[in-house]
Amino acid sequence: MLGLLALLFLAPVAISFYLYYGGWRATGDVSHGDLIAPARPLPNVSLNAPDGGSSAPLFDGKWSLIYSGEGACEAQCRHALYVTRQVRLALNQNMDRVQRVFLYHGECCEEPYFSAEQAGLIARNLDSAAGHELDAVLKSLAPAGESNARIWIADPLGNLVLSYPADTDPRGMIADLKKLLKLSHIG
């Protein structure tokens, strides 16, 4: 009886030692988006605002939900911006640690829509030399055969860490951001 009782408690320990020292490792990815490994630093640039003014560097001090697309902002763009807004709101007490950024080409920002539906959105034009540099980084990281119309997550130090298709399920993005914010001591 004593031997059976010892086996009951020692067997899990013996199995774990065997698996660990035998080289078995858990595989798989727990993120819902496309992990950018290693994290890719974004150029620390100042971009023009829709009103023509310039801004301080964007990706400094806060986590950023970034969407890059055309300034006309058709249906796919509006849906992606809606998703980023809802994801940020779903973070509850951590939503102040996250900013939303819209990087666009061409003319931007249908004013009634953006002021009413997208309050707090930071919109910046990519049609400058600095903007082309930033756009080139985003295009280089987009999956082959896909446009750069994606939602990106950048950390407070300005590194891209995750990306999602523009039509992604927001629940996965929320789960990833909650994990990142819980583990991060910056931003």
What's the SSE blueprint?
Blueprint: H1 2-21, E1 34-41, E2 63-70, H2 75-90, E3 98-105, H3 111-117, E4 122-125, H4 129-141, E5 150-154, E6 159-165, H5 170-183
Parallel strand pairs: 2-3, 3-4
Antiparallel strand pairs: 1-6, 2-5, 5-6
**Please, how many helices?**
5
Extended strand count: 6
Spatial extent as radius of gyration: 21 Å
Q: Low-confidence stretches at least 5 residues in length (pLDDT < 50)?
A: none
Terminus-to-terminus distance? 57 Å
Tertiary shape: elongated
Could you give a short account of the major beta sheet?
6 strands, mixed
Helix content: 25-40%
Q: How big a fraction of the residues is strand?
A: 15-25%
Spatial strand arrangement across the major sheet: 1-6-5-2-3-4
In N-to-C order, the SSE pattern is HEEHEHEHEEH
Return the structural class: alpha/beta
Structure, explained:
By secondary structure, the protein is an alpha/beta fold. It contains five helices and six strands. The chain is elongated, with a radius of gyration of 21 Å. The mean pLDDT is 86. Helix 2 (75-90) crosses helix 5. Helix 2 links the parallel strand 2 and strand 3 (98-105).
Give a concise summary.
With 187 residues, the protein is of the alpha/beta class. The protein is 37% helix and 21% strand.
Please give a handful of descriptors for the protein shown.
six-stranded mixed sheet, 37% helix, elongated
